[in-house]
Structure prediction request, 258 residues.
Amino acid sequence: MKTNLKLSEIPPVDSVLRKLILKLYMTDPTYIEDIGKGLPFFTEEELSSIEARYEEEGMTKKDLMAEIHKKGWLIKENTIKHYMQIKQLPLSLRREKTSQGMISRYPHDLIRHLNFIRYCLYSGTAFLTDKGALADMLKKALSLNDKIRLQSASIEVGGGMSGTDCLHELWIGLERLEDGIAWSEESIEKAFSSDESKKATYLSHLREVEKLRNDLEHKISEFDKLFESNMTPADDSRLLDFLDGKIAQVEDEEGGES
Prediction:
């Protein structure tokens, strides 16, 4: 049964609940049934393929609009902007200067969040309001691997920062450092074009910074994969308390609307 749902009732992009549900909501039997009926929502295979294409550079709004238009969605850019303003979609990772002006780069899973929002508005999200269904989904999500468990805990501890988590922040820090190195190199070349000695000295120091950055990338990759390769069943008291808290939060919000 479809129910009315307000945007304010959907877990925001920087919440632990969104982080967990985003991993599994498309395995919900009702979602699978709706896809089978021909409703224009994305399958996991479609989203994974899109995310793989934009994993390295991120998505632009132009990329997003192109992908959703292929699906037949008629959404205006102002609607996307509104979703970002009310913390339903992640904000940009960075701004880039191109030959056509400045553009924003967004997380590669931007379209997964948008698909989630549109399905919530369509379906009424029974998996959010059904206590048993919510508990089962959260337990399954937290048990997938320790990376999800860590990311969820980091959002809970940090309060969420535009949908990011602790591992995401490490990788973004590396990207910004890489940009800073390239920018510094270009600036040194320009500033000391007439002084080869100084230019060589400064570039030599910059190469040392670059090596440290590359070593750090290797260590962060090892750190990331360590959590991915392990899992912890979501059956200890801490996780049960976490689940009870999230279920109570949903029930409180329902009570406040009645």
